[in-house]
Each structure stands twice: as C-alpha cells, then as structure tokens.
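Risk register update: the risk of archive-format incompatibility is retired. Evidence:
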Amino acid sequence: MASPRGRRERGGRGSDGSDSDWMTRRLNGLGPVRIGVGANGGADDNDDAPVRPKQKVEEPRSWFARATGARRYTPSGKKSGKTQKKSIKGMVLRADADMRPVLSSLDDEEPRLTKRERYERAQAAKREPKVAKRNEPPQKSKTQKRASGKAAAAVKFAESRPRGKGGGNGGGGARYGARARQQPVRGFFREFFYWGLVICLWTAIGIGGMLFYYAMSLPDTSGLWNVAHAPSLSILADDGETLSHRGDMRGGMVLTSDMPTYVSQAVIATEDQRFYWHFGVDPIGLARAAWQNYRAGYIVQGGSTITQQLAKNVFLTSDRTLNRKIQEMLLAVWLEARYSKEQILTLYLNRVYFGGGAYGIEGASERFFKKSARELSLPEAAMLAGLLKAPSHYSPTNSITRARERAAIVLDNMLREEFITAADEQYALSHPASLEGYSASGSINYFVDWVADVLPAYTGEPNTDLIVRTTIDPAMQRAAEEVIAEMLKTEGAELDVSQAAIVAMTPDGSVRAMVGGRSYAQSQFNRAVQALRQPGSAFKPFVYLTAMERGLTPDTVRVDRPVTYGTWSPSNYTDKFAGPMTLAKAVSTSVNTIAVQIAQEVGIRNVVRTAQRLGIQQNLPANLSLALGTSDVTLLELTAAYATFANGGYGVLPHGIDEVHTRDGDEVYRRQGSGLGRVMDEKSMGEMNYMLQGVMTNGTGRKAALDDRQTAGKSGTSQDFRDAWFIGYSADLVVGVWVGNDNRSPMKKVTGGGLPAKIWHDFMSRTQAGQAVAALPGQYPYRGAADTGFTDNSYGDSGSDTQTYDAEPERQREWEEPGFFERLFGGGQRSDAGTGLRPGHNPGR
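Archived output:
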C-alpha cells in the first residue's frame, strides 16, 4: 500500500524478506530515499510487486542522510556539475514529521552492538572476499567527492551561523564572518597601542628625570628686576684721565609702554616673530634653524626666542654647550610661566647688549643717537633692532653703511608682519638714521670703541656701572692724532692718500696710542683693528725668521735672479736683478726673488706656522706668493708680531685694558701674566734684529731711522701701491703705520719707505725725546750666554766697522717662563712689575 507522502518500492537480493531487502521512498524535501524493508512495522509485504530497475545513488550530502543511512536518489547516477550544485544548494535540512517513525524503527531493527561484537564483525568482514554486491551503490568519482566535501562544509558553516531576526539566516552570518576576518587586524592595533603606550610612558619618565636634574643646577633667579639703569662705562687713561663715558646717561628702566610701539615691534619682527605665540621655546624656530644648519653644514641660524636670550643674558654665560642650552630652555619656560609677555620684553630691551659698550635700549639710544629711547624714530628703532644679531659686526661705529643695510632688512620684516605700511617703510629708507652720539670727534674714540667691544670677554655682561682703566698714554695719543692729521693734510692729496692708521704699543703688547682713521666724526671704521689689507714686504721677516731657525744666517748668500714657479714669476720693485748677495742685504733692500727662494727652500707651510706663532690670527694660504705678503692682516696683529723681536723673543697679546672696577671700588678684572712665552730662540732673535736694523740704516727704512737710539723695522708695499706699511721698533716702543684708501684705489707710487716711514719717524721723535736709551735685545754673531757684547757687522762685510754695547748680565726672570694658563688668561707676575718688560728696559740681551 502506497504511503500518503510518497511512493514505496521494494527490492533486494531475494524474495524472502531478509534484512538485506530494501525499498526506496520519496520524502518531502529529500527526494528518493533508500531504507530497509520493514522499517515501519506494518509495511506492505506484497512480494509480487514489480521490481523497478535498479537506480544508481550517490553518497548523502547532509547530516540528516548520514543519521538515517538514506541515500539521495539519482535517476541516472550522473548529473552535471551545474545540476549537482543546484540540488545541493536547494537541499532543505529539515526532517518531516512522518519520518520520525522510520527513525525509531531503524533503531529497533538494529540494536546497538557492543565493542566486542563490532570488533568481531569487522574482522569477519575483512576475511570475506570483496565481491561487489548487486544493489550496492557505485563508488563516487573525484568530482563527486569534492562536491560532497564542499556541501558538507557549506552545511557546517550554515549550522554555525547565528540566526537573524525572525529565525532566518539573514545578514547576521555575513556580519559574523566579517568580524571574524577583522580579529587579526584588531589584535595588531591592540598590540601596537599597548607597546606604544609603554614606550611613551618610559620616555616621559626619562625626560622628566633629565629635566629634574638640570632644574636642580639652575642658577639663582633672584635679582631679575634689580636694574635701576643700564650699566655705564667710564673709560680712563693709564694716568686716570677720563677718555669717554658710555652707557645709560639718564638712568632708570624704560618700559615698553613708554617707548613708541615700533621699537618693540622692530625687535619682535627681527628676533622672534612668534613671541606672543610660544611658551618660551619655539619648536618651529628650532626645527627651521636645525634644517638650515644641516643644509649649510655649519651653524648659520639659531632658534633662540627673546625669552631664551633674556635667560642667557641675565643668568647664564655665552658657552655653546648642550648643558647651557637645556638650562636656557628651562629658564625660558620658567620666565614665561612667571611673567607676562610685556614684562619679558621690557626686561629684554633693558638688559641686552647693543654693541659699542651700550647695554639696554636707553644706553644704546644715548650712545648712538644722543637721545632717550622714548624719542626714537622709526629708522633709529630699526637700526637698533638690527644690531641685536651681531652687535660688533653691524655697529654703526664700525660701518654706518652696513648698519643701514641691516636696518632695511628690519623694516622689510616689519612690513611683512604688518607692523608698518609700505609708505612708512619708504619714508624710513629715504631718511636713514645717522650717528649723533659723540659730542667730540677726537680719534681717541677709535680706541674707546675697541676697548668697549672686547670688554665683555674680560668681565662678562655686567649689571652695574664699571670703571675701566686702560693702557692708553694721553700724550702719545695726542701725538699720533697730530702726526696723522698733518701728514695727510700736507701730502695726502698730492699722493692720492685719503686714510691712515697708527698703533703704538710697548714690547709687552700694551697699546699706548691708536688712531683708526683720518676723522672719527666722518668715519668710525677702525682701520687699525678692523681693516684687512695686504702687508707686502712687511711680511718677509716671518720668512727669514723661519730660515734662521733652520740654520741659515744673515751672511748666507743667495742669487737675485729671475725665477719661475709654475706660471708665476716674481719680480723686484726695480725690475732688475743684482746677482749674489747676503740675506741681510736682501732684507734691507727688500729683494722679492730671494724672499720667494727662501720660502721655497724652508717650506711655505713652515712660514705660515712661524707667522701664527708670533701672533698672526688670520688664515694664511700656503702658497709661495705669501712670502711677498699677499694675504690680508690687520695693523694691530702685525704690530704685535713685531713686538716679539723687540722684547727678546716672547709672544704677546695686544691689549688695552689694565684693570676694571665697579663704582663701589670692587675689583672685577686685573691684567696679569706676560703673554704667550718664548716663541723664538735667542740666536734667531739676535739675527733678525741685526738684519732689521740694516733696513733702517742702509735699506728701505732710512727715512724712519732715529739718530739717538737703535731702531729696526721693515717697510711693505702691496701690489699697484694700494697699501703702504712701515712697522718699526726700539727697545721701548713698537709702532705700526698704514696708509691707503678705503676703496682700495692705487696711490701715486707711495711705498712703505715713503709716507709711512715719515709718519713713523715723526711720531717716534715726538714721543721718545728725553726717554732713556736702550739697545735692542740679541746679538750677532751669536756667541752664547757667556758673550756680553753686541756686535753690529753690517751685511757681514769683513771690512765694516763694529760696535759693541754692554749688555746686562744674564739672570733668571720670573716672567720669562709662565705656565700656559697663566700666559693665556693671566695669573702670574704682572708684565710691568719687578723685572718684567717696561719702557727703557732690555730683557733679552
């Protein structure tokens, strides 16, 4: 009897109804299913029913089929891949209610077996021959197995998916899969965040510890406002005469609210454009400065804010160290937290150094413009703001042109920051600031400017008024001013000479007179200290000293002849060649070819080292033309180098400050020590003095010679008569003279033995008259320490007259061999005390 839900078919191995018989039945949702006969208990037992043709089946593809042992019906046993996919995809895994009796009958038909029974049945099955059963379904192909595996995986995934709303398998499963795929990504970010937080925490702890360490070493910050006025300087001569007064002449601190607004705006636009934005340290400025310095390969910019500069100026030194920079930043943050921006700006403007000895805006205004800061004009404010970058370099006392160029940059910055209009800028550029700060135009101000510029190196930046006693001799200073003025007036126009400079110092380097130009009122540029010019033959003593130290003597003979080195062929002033001559004569007559031959012989690098050992500070190129003085030097350093010959072979440091006191009498600085110690041996020193004396008696310096005392020196003339020098000395005084033009235009055949030698002679005649006579140190021929005489054997000729001067007995002097730090910074016997160097004293014979 047919089932109401499907059709039953019967078949099997035999007709006896054994367990091996089976039947197929169509079930809703599953199709034809193969089950054992009698599974429903009252099934139809009609053995006469016709047997249907055997059907090929394939392996079940669902948990339901596996649980019931059913097989899915396949009419032909084969299906295309597309049909199989559709049947698998459309399979409904839901048991019909009518199948429940079938399942229970299956359980009753084959009770559970024990482990022993299952083992025995398995062993019997292995022993039986493997004969294909007639009704056994065929083996699956590889394609069918792969399809079956995919179906099982799909079923398992469908069973594991969470149900959506309404119990369906909606978008919840997709979302669950997406969340599953996101799990590794989320885990990575959790790990990254965790370790990043750990690193940041430890970094913060380290930085905090470092800041605490540096904070504990900060200087005392009390007294920040204890500035009643900008510090002033009183410059005195060596006899106590007042030479000049610099600084705040009016006293009192000037508030930013009392000054024109463009004064503070000029400073902010130039020094710290983000002043009102940062917290004391400007990260943007630091990054910009670091990038610019990296690109340039050296320090070209600084990232310090106005607050940092205030901290450095008030509390710290100018040392360029990492410790000082960190302390500066900490103090800047402290200042920003404690004071307002206007208070910080007021402190800065009243404490910063503007150059020329002026500290604070009020002192600088009085120094350069002879007015209060409350009355500054826009061009004057721009010029003062421009000085802050490099006070000495941009100082209007050094170069008014350079100061005005810098002021133009400040005005452009103000326009870019919208502090002023284009019309304001144009007016300021057409009416630039001019110096009005000097009531006297005396040339002593050249010296005063030099002292004021170097004073911070000795005292730091003071916060009180100072009295500076200098080494200047007022009588010598007046004589120098008079000689320069007279010579330029009488011969300057005729010879196309517009400027001249003179420096006079004792053999220990104490500057006694200094004139830096024709008129201080017209030009404050100090040609004695700042001008770099070619010395010409005045450089030759360094060449010959190198030769003397390597065994040559004044009597050594060399040939004045044409020589060529590469493409360069040096020539003499007369364009003639005199043939063989001694080195002494070559020096006195300033023969160029022999000087170059000697430099080639001893090595030009050795000549450079000799010049630097004697005090030349400029960079000297190591080429043979240096022997003829083609490298620029200053008059001050060249004169100081010649002082070594005058004092017996000891290097000196030119100086103009003797001592510094406060107005209360407290000593701030006192010069001690005597220079750099011995820089040449006594034999070489005597030979050089012998040859340089010949310059004065029979050579190019005859116009400079004095009748009453021994003198020595050397003339120098640069190419095309652009510079003319004469550097000479006695046992008591060393004097250097330079003449030329600021634009380097040629003079009318002015040589060092001409106008400069005349100036040197007139100055020495006025200042040395009535002074004690002393012989130059050293002797030639050198006869050792036992020799007590000095022999003048001109050019080494055997028939010349000889002069013998009594020399002081050799004795040990404390000042002769001070320690290195004593020589460099002071701390030993004073140079003018006891048996040290002093006018009229010969220390080296």
